[in-house]
Structure formats: C-alpha cells, structure tokens
Amino acid sequence: MAKKARAQSAPVKEWLAANECARRIGITVRALRVYEQRGLIRPRRTEKGWRLYGADEIARLHEVLALKRLGLSLASIVVLLQGKAIDLERTLTLQSAALSEQRARAERGLALVEAARATLAAGRTLSIEDLIKLAKEANMPELTQDSVARRRYEQARPRTPIKIDPSLLERYVGHYRLPSDTIIAIERRGDSLFAQLTGQPALELFAEAEGEFFLKAVPAQIGFAASRDAAAPSLTLSQGGFDMVAPRVDASEAAALEAALATRIRNRTPQPGSAAVLHAIIADQQEGRTGEERMSPELAIVVGEQFPMLQEELAAKGDLRQLVFKGVGSDAADVYEAQFANGKLDCGIFLADDGKAHMLWLTPSL
C-alpha cells in the first residue's frame, strides 16, 4: 500500500507590533518611526493601519543599530543602506572587529587584576608600576579633558617606521566613512600607502606594526581592523585626542557621498538649523556658558579647553548683530560670517543627526 505523503506546513511567520518590537529591542517607538521616515525600514501594515515588524524588518534594524554604535550618523546610514539588500554578514564583520578590540582590552584588564590579586594573596604589596597599569588598563576609558590630553600626548609622541610585507597593503586599500560624512580614501602607490580625506591632499602613511600606521605630516595615526586575510572592514583615525571609527564603504557609495557634498558646496546649501545652533552657542559663550549641551561630547571637550580664550574674544566683539551664510566648506561645515557690534568672525559648524554641533571653528573675518 502506498503511503500518503504528509503535507509539511510552512513555518508560521512571527510579527511584532511597534511597541513590542521597540520594547524587546530596547529602543523607542519614536525611533522606529524615524527609521521608517528615513526609508530604512518598511513595516507591514494591517487593514487598520497598525505597523507590524517581522524577521526582515528586525534584521534591518540590527544593521542600523550596529552602524550607529560604530559611530555612523543616521544620514550616513541612509546613504550606506539605501537600495541595498540586507547584508548581515557585512554588519556582523564590522561588529566583530569592534567587539574583538573591546574583548582584547577587557582580557588585558582581567589579566592585570588577577595578577594583582595573586600578588596580594601571597602577602606581597603592589608596586607603583603595578598600580599605574591597573589604573590605565583595567578601567574603561572615560571622555574627560584629562583622558583626551593623555591621548593627544600619546598621538604626538615620536614614531619609528618599520618595513612590513607589501602584500599586506592591498587589504587596507579602499574607502572609509567618518562620522562627519567625509571619506578617507586609502590608496596604494608601489610599496606605500596614502590616505586622502575629502577635500584635502593625499598624505603618506608609515607602518609601525601590522595594520598600524602613522602620518608624519600631522600627529595622527590610522589603525585597520584585522579580518583574516580579507579587506579590512573599518579603520580608526586617532587624532586630536580622539578615536574615530570609519567603516569601509564601496567606491560607488563614497562617490555618492562626495557628490552630495559637492552639490551642497556648489548650490550653497546649509544644513537645516545650523544658523540657529551657532547663534545659540555664541549667545551661551558670551553669557559665560560653554553651550556644551548643544555639542557632541568630543566637541564639548575641545571647546571646554578653549573656553576662556573664546569667551574673551566674543566679549570683545560685543552684541551679535547677524549671521550671514557664506557657503559650505570642503570639510562639510556651513560657513557663516558673524557680524558683531565691534567686528566680525568667520565661523564653521557641522551638525550631527541629533541636531548637535559635531564641528565648530571661529577665525577672524578677512
């Protein structure tokens, strides 16, 4: 007797309502709406208009959140993912590089702690050197003026170039996106690497270890994330006391971003709200406040260091009469002429997606 074939039912697809999706992932419903408005996710709609999120939508959310944690702005993520299929392998590779670095630091810290405990258990005391290592390695770094000053000192120390296997250089070649929506292009010329930031000349990189390079022209270093003989998934630019992670992007995405900046420059298109934020920061500083709540944490540190000089300069200029937009710089900053009762200043400002200033500079107006 022939056996009847059993029909196998397809697995039931699970859907989550917006509030349940947000709660389980750990974000707000408002964030889901923002991602939808930006075209990053497209939830299914019920007949009554309720939004539903399935596996595809949550996979895309994972990509978005992972890229945000790596330092990309929301505008950058939109350009990076627009029209692209979900690629969890690419995102997981980036996450793996970042988490591996964190794990290595944690393992070093744990090893120091256990060694210190063993020393104390043996009835011996910890030396000053032991205590310094514990303070430096076992604690996660905080973004303070002191920590930034230490990093700046470390970044400015003399470095000695070494020779590395030229075959390793190809894995570093490519385009990488900084949080400020600018591109670092890494190019190989013979047995040397060159780095070029959008709107700036190319500078030669000198190796100090495998995957670790420095520049002689400026006190800065570039480190590439390791990736098992494949193309490096990201780089870290260390400069000015800060570390900025830049994920790899393909050449077409880099070209699109640079074209968008070129269009802003050509059409003289300021970022929405940049004049209002600049005006508020100037008003804050003239009244004795740094205005740090309007800035990224990194910018707030730099402005805090320069605050006495800035306040003195702005106080001498008197009341701010108006801000005149002059154009967009090659660094993507909106450039304004600030006209005061007693003089003028040229100011540059770039806003992140949260509306806070990521870049700010002031110079005498010519």
Automatic annotation (TrEMBL):
Family matches, as InterPro entries: DNA-bd_dom_put_sf, MerR-type_HTH_dom, MerR_fam, Peptidase_S12_Pab87-rel_C
Pfam families: DUF3471, MerR_1
UniProt name for this protein: MerR family transcriptional regulator
Keywords: DNA-binding, Repressor, Transcription, Transcription regulation
Key word Transcription present: yes
Domain HTH merR-type: start-end pairs: 22-83
First and last residue of the signal peptide: none
Highest taxon, organism lineage: Bacteria
